[in-house]
Amino acid sequence: MKAARPRVYVSRRFHFSAAHRVYNPAWSDEKNAEVFGLCSHPAGHGHNYELEVVIAGTPDPDTGYVMDIARLRDLVEGKVIRVLDHRNLNTDVPFLSGQIPSSENLIVALWNQIQPLLPEGVELVELRLWETPRNCFVYYGETS
Ligand code: NI
């Protein structure tokens, strides 16, 4: 009989501030204003984003950890948050290049950046991105 392997979820919350203008460059300013409202104001605006990263795995018998959460913190802070914090999402972030910096597109791009950072046996299961204290975007990875 196979031994039971407990699956434990571990979550870490990150913070970054960034500016963006949500607009479609193929459209006129008038059409952008009509579709995106204040979000398309040409001078842009900022958000204090909160990002929650949820991973899952079986605790390692030698450490009791799914993954050292300090390592998760350092990896995500160093490789992802540092690239976003106090930047303009329209112009400064290579992995958002050519995309409308909506929170929907941002959370998918964040997934694609974070997933390859995780060690073998540790799975990225959920991202939660708060654009404001009231607006939250949730992503579980691509649907097949
Ligand atoms: Ni916005």
SSE diagram, text form:
Blueprint: E1 8-20, H1 29-36, E2 45-57, H2 69-84, E3 87-88, H3 103-114, E4 123-130, E5 136-139
Parallel strand pairs: 1-3
Antiparallel strand pairs: 1-2, 2-4, 4-5
The structure holds nickel (II) ion (NI).
Residues 20, 22, 39, 45, 47 line the site of nickel (II) ion (NI).
**Gyration radius, in Å:** 18 Å
Question: CATH homologous superfamily, by name?
Answer: 6-pyruvoyl tetrahydropterin synthase/QueD
Low-confidence stretches: none
Strands, count: 5
3D structure, described in words:
The chain is an alpha+beta fold and 144 residues long. It has a single domain (8-139), classed as 6-pyruvoyl tetrahydropterin synthase/QueD (Tetrahydropterin Synthase, Chain A). Helix content is 25%, strand content 28%. It has helices at 29-36, 69-84, 103-114; strands spanning 8-20, 45-57, 87-88, 123-130, 136-139. A five-stranded mixed sheet has the order 3-1-2-4-5. Strand 4 and strand 5 (136-139) form a beta hairpin. The two termini are 31 Å apart. The structure holds nickel (II) ion. Residues 20, 22, 39, 45, 47 line the site of nickel (II) ion.
Quick summary:
With 144 residues, the chain is α+β, with helices and mostly antiparallel strands.
Keywords:
144 residues, alpha+beta, Tetrahydropterin Synthase, Chain A, 5 strands, binds nickel (II) ion
